[in-house]
Amino acid sequence: MTVKSLKEARREQILKSAEKVFSEKGYLNSTISDVAKETGVSDTTIYEYFSSKEELLFSIPREGIELSKQMLDSHLSYISGTNNKLRGMIYHLCKFYQDNPYFASISLMTIKTNKKFMETETYKDLIEYYKIVSNVIREGMQNGELKSDIDPYFVRSVIIGSVEFIVIRWLMYGCPEDKTQPILNVDPLFKLIMNGAKKDKRMKNFNFKIKIEPEDEDVEE
Description:
Layout: H1 3-25, H2 32-39, H3 43-49, H4 53-76, H5 82-99, H6 101-109, H7 121-143, H8 152-172, H9 186-197
Helix pairs in contact: 1-2, 1-4, 1-6, 4-5, 4-7, 5-7, 5-8, 5-9, 6-8, 7-8
């Protein structure tokens, strides 16, 4: 293993430890020493990779976002049809958060409530990730599967906001294995979204005008 790969492995180890510590103890109640202890290194070693606890916090989701993006891109490449892609995206988001509860907790309950997050490179990565969702929505508007007059950014916000609410609720309950699990809410959410966004291809209402005339009768002479 090269020196570079050793440093990368150590950095990843520190990030995983910080993710666990910040999630379990809360960011404000955690210290660099707590992360160092969890990692099995000194405080000094942590500072060799991250200048502050805040930089460490904002660095946590970056690799998770990139991994999730790669998985979603690969997943969508095997799916045809906007409706199927939208359901696939909702499923992927719910499952990824459910499979990575520490990541979900830090990303949704700590980082996204910090205004400084919008100034980071990680935030830019997140915006690129969200473009996948809006691009699929636009595709559906163009091919006639979705209404042509919807706002793709608004629909995207509804999808992402709903998924995040579902995940946060599950986290707040302590990640139970019951009906609050994110993946068990995929279809109800998908159906709700599609009821508002799907183009109605049924025959439109129209008016009838019926004219009734008497039949010709034989005239008696």
